[in-house]
Protein 1
Amino acid sequence: MDLTTLPKVELHSHLDCCLSYGAVRRIDPRITRERYARDFVGPERCPSLADFLGYTMNYRALLQSERALRIAVQDVFEQMSRDGVAYVELRFAPLVHAADSSMSGDEVVAYVAEETAAQAAATGIDARLILCTLRDYDTERSLETARLAVRHAGSGPVAGLDIAGDEIGFPLDGHVPAFALAREAGLGVTVHAGESGGPENVREALDKTGTRRIGHGVHSVEDRELLARLAEERVHLEICPASNVQTSAVPSLEEHPVGRLREAGVPVGISTDARAVTNVRLTREYERLRDVLGWTQADFAQMNLDALEAAFAPEDVKRRVRDVLVHAYAEV
Ligand SMILES: [Zn+2]
């Protein structure tokens, strides 16, 4: 089974955490390979999610211009092409990139959307964008992100709203209006939950935002009732195994609950989360699932079809990608 060329659906990938060294050097030639290895790539295990998030600050500092954002998009599409990605949803927090630059939030979204559409056309990778609000934003900033998503949806690849950042100490109450706005406008929504926090955070996300997708959600496995609900309502979990180990959300890949989640009937997909911070490729994630957890071709096929079902794409796109998946996995 050549895992490199198998078509893949990736729903959870942060644009601002994917910069290769080559792209970083194009943006700022003063950054040496040694500095990149030290400041941009995290250790195999960070003591906590907060520690992991510290690395993302270095990427954000670089991504404060139209040129840098376009380089980031080109770079991640190059990486995804080598990984056989057929459909992707990239996410980023637009207000972060407007923070220290002269760009407005609208300009940030417009540049990323335009470059994404161009790269999607050039590579044949179907792509959608998810805008992220952050756990530590207040209600107004969260709404500002949701309004950006609503304004830019329809005319390009923007298709959803997410909330990222550390769950600990930041409940979702202040973000409920942003999610309501996005849902009323017909956008897809997803929520980072059950990563550093427990199953109660996953339940909070379902109840307060109406989401049918959870970023990570690995701690759902600790709550039998929640597992039954996720399976019954077909709530999709965006699982990022290497990232989960790196952020200490799970102790090791061997102990990762993805197998137990699937056995409970919960639909899951596999993504990289933060390719560069975690120093991982999507193909590598698949190889580790095959080698460590014994996943077969049938497992990869089912997982990709489940991810596609949960994607924020119109039915005609899903049908097209589904045909590609079914054909490719039948041939292996
Ligand atoms: Zn994430």
Protein 2
Amino acid sequence: MTHDFLESLKNELGPDVFFGDDIPARYHNDWSGMTPVRPLALVRARTTEHVSKTLRLCHQHKVPVTPQGGLTGLAGGARPIEGGVALSLDRMNAIEEIDTVMATMTVQAGVPLGVAQRTAEDAGLFLGLDLGARDSCLIGGNLSTNAGGNRVIRFGMAREHVLGMEVVLPDGTIITSLNKMLKNNAGYDLKQLFIGSEGTLGVITRAVLRLQAKPADLATAFCGCPDFPSMLELLKSARQHLGAALTSFEVMWPSFYDFMTGRLPSLRRAFSEQHGIYVLIENGGRNAEDNRMLLETVLGEALEKGWVSDAILPASNREARDLWAVRESVSEYGKLMGPTTAFDVGVPTSAAGRLVEAVEAAVSERWPDAIGLSYGHIGDSNLHFVCNIPSAGTNQPYKAITELVFDLVAKEGGTISAEHGIGLVKKPYLKLSRTPEELALMGKIKHALDPHNVLNTGKVLPGSEY
Ligand SMILES: Cc1cc2nc3c(=O)[nH]c(=O)nc-3n(C[C@H](O)[C@H](O)[C@H](O)COP(=O)(O)OP(=O)(O)OC[C@H]3O[C@@H](n4cnc5c(N)ncnc54)[C@H](O)[C@@H]3O)c2cc1C
């Protein structure tokens, strides 16, 4: 059976299919840090028809297939499985159209997010989706994970940036629905099934992205606040004064800020004093002077009321980039910390301070040498916690740390994943955030679309093991 399957794959996909040592190691894993797996075959599709042929063959021969984008996912969703096919979209990287009247961009799934952002800006428009992995992650991966990032507070998650999509179903059927209209209530909004389902229901091949008016500029402020409650007052004031122009409100606890600025010589500490919590605010209104003036108003009031102890309004883009560099240094964890257990939980914003205190205290009590860093997209109720236990070396107690953190998250009524998704890493814990009825419905949808359980087998849904 495997022999027939591989022959058919070779016949139908020709030079776009790779086997054995010809499969580069980068396709063996994503950023989750799990053990790499070399797939049976790698297909690097160039067209939607290639994707369709691959899925049809996998469906017929009941061979599992893992969709892959830029492989920056942190949940193990794009890690291939042994004996299965890895299906990479990285060669489907054309920008097919920019429509400046409709403010849309039609892209293939393999376009890197950063390329889509720059192309929109060159056309005088703006793509509101942004995340640290922008130059490595691909649009298909962003949509299938319903990615969040730095500007959700203003523009929403990836879902809000999509008007139309083309998807290939597990049996190879191509569903082309490249709608460009803002309003279209003709029947079910099918694209929503595939956005955020982490490649378990279909493979995204093309998308129509919704673009925004380009902000005149993005003014940044960096603040040191005495404590979490003061920071919440600052958030309320920023929302009130900046309104829809508030594009980011990113928070770093001292555990994160001190560790990163202390360990990375390229990063500059903004203040000589220590503060209780650090905030990056970005204001992207229509007028550059107003942007800065409004930020000054927010900071003036906050300093007067004691919500902010110190603040910087950078004088140049370069200075602003230096301030953002600390927040964006998350890509350096691997080098600085070694193996980590990482979280992207969500909790109601007012509970986030209590949760960080509880998590940092509980982890240090249990593992006294633990290094735990807390930061987050606080305006979106999304907290990150990254942890390494130096004394555990390569044998990190992932399960014990995860259970400890998720238990505290559950007590605050939170979610185990706000943006990275479930993949493999969080699959055993999905039941903490979803009811049995919700899980059963997810299982029914999966079975209806993928009766042989071949597409991204074993990911997301408990009981979907191959
Ligand atoms: C430094 C860094 C910063 C990050 N910051 C953020 C952040 O702020 N917010 C955030 O949400 N995430 C963040 N991430 C996580 C990651 O970048 C996102 O999850 C991203 O959306 C994954 O895109 P990708 O192309 O790399 O997908 P991959 O990792 O290749 O795949 C992710 C999932 O999508 C599936 N998939 C991929 N392509 C397709 C497709 N075309 N059709 C169907 N399924 C597909 C895969 O099977 C897998 O389940 C960060 C990661 C890093 C390394």
